[in-house]
Amino acid sequence: MLLDNFEKTREKINLELIKRLDTNKYNYYNQLTLLKENSFKDESYIRDDMKFNIENHKEITFTYIENKSIGVNSIGSDLRALSINNIKLEYNNFKQCIFKNIKFKKSSFYGSEFSQCTFENVEFDECDFYYEDSSMTVFSDNTSFENCRFKRCNLKKTIFKNISLKSSKFILSNMIDCIISLSYIENISLKDCDCRAFKTINTIIEFIEFEDDYLTKFNEDTFIDKMDVYKKDKNFYEKIFKVYKNIGITFERNTLLNNSGEYYYLAKCMERKSLNGFGKIKSYILWLLCGYGERPTYALITSLEILLFFTILYMFTGLDVNGNIVKYDIFFILNLPISNLASDFFHSLYFSIVTFTTVGYGDITPIGASIMLSGFEMILGVTMVGVWTATLARKITR
Predict the structure, then answer these.
(1) What's the predicted TM-score (pTM) here?
(2) Which of 188, 278, 369, 397 could form a Cys-Cys staple with 317, CB 3.0–4.6 A?
(3) Using CA atoms, how far apart are residues 197 and 174, in angstroms rounded to an integer?
């Protein structure tokens, strides 16, 4: 994925998302046609006024289920979460349903869409949300998850669009090529999941952690979008800093150092906003000098700015150019011909360059205050050349 151009990558993923939703809809009607041809059945409906107990079914397919409460409303000393094993909930449309205090084990949901649904204290264990290349699962339209758990699930190519995901865990799950779009994520953890080609776009992530015993897998197609900073306070900046930092560490563990560096840069930029006093000044300086070690062009641009700045200073503090003294004041500049001004500027620029690079040919010598300035520029030059070389080498080797 193009981490140096988030906007372009975001557009590419949006197109992929639209295509995937269209493909999923096509596959749904294709499977429905096969059902009609083979068993002469059609779509069915379970609405408000119809009784529905999911535990009484082993298979529900091609059904529209609306406004149903599924599970146990509350768990007390004498009540346990509803446990459902080996149920097929394939190619269904759930709308405005509430799933609460329920555990699905070895169940399948592929081809289904959940719209405006609520999942609270729901556990999915060894469940399938994807089948081959034809059927995936879609959660959309303000569907919310809270205190949910996905363990050893196949969530490949699952789509989460415009959803809320809070205080939930993904453990040992296949999340290859998942897309999360236009969503809100708060306090989720991933443990040893396969997140290759996993993507989030236009999504706010307030906190994410990786509680790995082994490794959550990332690859070069894994993409976590930059987050919209909708709050302007220190605590929020610190949260986003930790999110970027955790993502960067996980990329690093997967030996994807270039991706890791990009999220490290985003983390440091967010950390800078949360700092005060000298710490903030120091962070700004590091950002300007080299982009926290991730932007070689910053070091080059800063070096050019230093060269030009000292060029102007030397014109006013004085240089000896083969016996000719170059030393300006404001009134002298106003009355000087343009050709002379250009010639003296280039002499000053030349002296600034040889001083900055510590070459020092000696054909032009500083006088007065320029002596002290040239010494200071040499120190800056040695530092900036080293910073630029190190930063560039680091990026190239990655």
Answers:
(1) 0.82
(2) 369
(3) 11
